[in-house]
Amino acid sequence: MVAHAAATEAGSDTLDVRVVTPEGTLMKGEASFVAAPASDGEVGILPSHTPLISKLGTGVLRVTPKGGADPVKFAVRGGFLQVVKNHVTLLVTEAATREQTDISALQAQLEETLKKLANPPSDEEYTALLELRRWIEARQKLA
Amino acid sequence: MPEKARVIRRRISSVTNTAKITRTMEMVATSKLKRAQARVVSSGPYLDTLKEIMGRLAGAAADVSRYPLLAAREVKKVLLWIVTADRGLCGSYNVNLLRLGREIIDREKAAGHEVSVWMSGRKGVVAFRFREIPMVRTLIGMTDRPTFADARKMAKELTDPFLAGEVDRVLIVWPRFLTLGRQPPSEMQLVPIAPPEEAGEKKHDEVPFLYEPSPEEIFKELLPLYVENMVFRVLAESVVGEMIARRTAMKLATDNAEKLVKALTLQYNKARQSQITMELADILGGSEALK
C-alpha cells in the first residue's frame, strides 16, 4: 500500500477518495473536499492536508467531487479516516446511502428512541441510545 | 450369462438421471462460488487499509497490557473453532479440515492444554460424534452469504471467553483461500492478536501523522475491528472453499457418469444384437424342425 501511494500520487489540487466498508467499496473517485463526522465534531479535508488518522463518529459524510458538483452524502456509523499525500481513505464500519434507506420508517424509530432516552435504564443504554439517535438523524439528513 | 438388454437400459436411464443431478449441483456450486468469491475480494480494501493503519500505530502498542486483545498469557485452555460444511458431496473438503482439527487437538493436549472444540457444519459434528470427540458447541445452518454483522456476532462470541479469562487462546481451522486451485485447511490464532509489523518501507521523508483523538484510543478501537474482519474472512473463505470443492466433485461425478453411459450404451447394443440373433436362430431352428 505504501508503494502504491508513491506511484500514484493525486494531483496537488485533488483528493483521491475511497470509502470502504468491510463488505466492499462504496465509493472511489476524485474530490475537492471531504467533510467527515469525527468523534468531537466535523473534520474537513482539503488537498495538501497533513497526514492524519482520525476516529470517525456517527453522522453524515460529504464528499464534494472534483468540479464542484453537489456533494455525495453517506450516513456513516463509526470507523476511521486516513489522509496521506492527498489519498483519503474512509474505513467505515456501517454506512447507508439514500437509496438504501427507508426514510419514512425513520421518524417512528426516532420517536421511540427519544421516548426511551427520557427514561434510560442505565448509563450504557443512555450512551447507546444517543448514538442510535445520531444514526437515525444522520440517515434522515440524506433526504 | 450376458445381461439382458432391458436390464442395461434401466441402468443407462438411472445413470443418466444421476448425471442430471450432479450437473445441476455443479452449476449451482459454480454460481454460488462466483458470489462468494466476490464477497472475499470486495472485503480486501477494507482489511488492507486496516492493516496499514495498524502497522502505523504498532508503536503505540508498546504497553501491551493496556490492550486486552493483544495480551498473551500462560495457556491453560484453548478454544478451537473448526469450520466444515453442512452438506457433503464435496470430495475430501470436510475430511481434510477435520484432520487438521484433530492434529491441533492432539498437539495442544500434548502441550498440556485443555481444548474446547466449537464445530460448525453438520458434517464435522457427525464426524466428531462418531469418533466420540467432545464438542462444547455446535453450529449448524450457517449462512452461505455471510454479512459483516454475522462476523461481528461470531467474533464477540469467540472473544468474550478470552476476555473473561475462561480461555487463553482462540484458534480457528478453516480453508484459507490462496487461489482457485488451492484452499488448504489452515490454522489461525484469532486472539491474542499478533498485530501486523510496522511497515518496514516507511519512508523517512514522511511527515509524522496526527492522531485524533489519540494513537492509543485509535489502536484500542482498531483491535476488535481487526478481529471481526478476520472472522469475516474465515466465514467468507469457507463458503468459497466449500463451493469449489463441491463444483470439482460434481464435475468429476458428471464426467464419470457420462463415460459410464457411453460404455453401457455399447454394452446395450451388443446385448440387443445378440438377443436378436438368438431369437432369429430360435425361429429359424423352429421352422427347420417343421420342414
Structure in words:
The complex is a heterodimer of chains A (143) and B (291). Chain A has helices at residues 2-7, 103-118, 123-140; strands spanning 15-21, 24-38, 41-45, 52-65, 72-84, 87-96. In chain A, helix 2 packs antiparallel against helix 3. Chain A has three helices and six strands; from the N terminus they run αββββββαα. Chain A has two domains: 2-96, F0F1 ATP synthase delta/epsilon subunit, N-terminal (ATP Synthase, domain 1); 103-140, no CATH class. Chain A is elongated and about 50 Å long. Helices cover 28% and strands 45% of the residues of chain A. With 143 residues, chain A is an alpha+beta fold. Chain B has 291 residues and is α/β, with parallel strands linked by helices. Chain B folds into two domains: 5-22 and 253-281, no CATH class; 26-196 and 209-248, ATP synthase, F1 complex, gamma subunit (Pyruvate Kinase, Chain: A, domain 1). In chain B, 59% of the residues lie in helices and 12% in strands. Chain B contains six helices and six strands; from the N terminus they run ααβαβαβαβββα. Chain B has helices at 5-42, 44-57, 93-110, 122-130, 148-163, 215-290, and strands at residues 77-83, 114-120, 137-139, 169-175, 185-191, 210-212. A five-stranded mixed β-sheet of chain B has the order 3-2-1-4-5, sandwiched between helices. In chain B, helix 5 (148-163) crosses helix 6. The longest helix of chain B is centred in the last third of the chain and has 76 residues, at 215-290. Chain B is elongated. At the A-B interface, helix 1, strand 1, strand 2, strand 4 and strand 5 of A face helix 2, strand 6 and helix 6 of B. Strand 4 of chain A pairs parallel with strand 6 of chain B, so a sheet runs across the interface.
**How many beta-strand runs of chain A?**
6
- The number of helical runs of chain B is 6
What's the Cα radius of gyration of chain B? Answer: 29 Å
CATH topology term of the largest domain in chain B: Pyruvate Kinase, Chain: A, domain 1
- Tell me the strand order in the biggest sheet of chain A: 1-2-4-5-6
Q: What is the overall shape of chain A?
A: elongated
CATH superfamily of the largest domain in chain A: F0F1 ATP synthase delta/epsilon subunit, N-terminal
Number of helices of chain A: 3
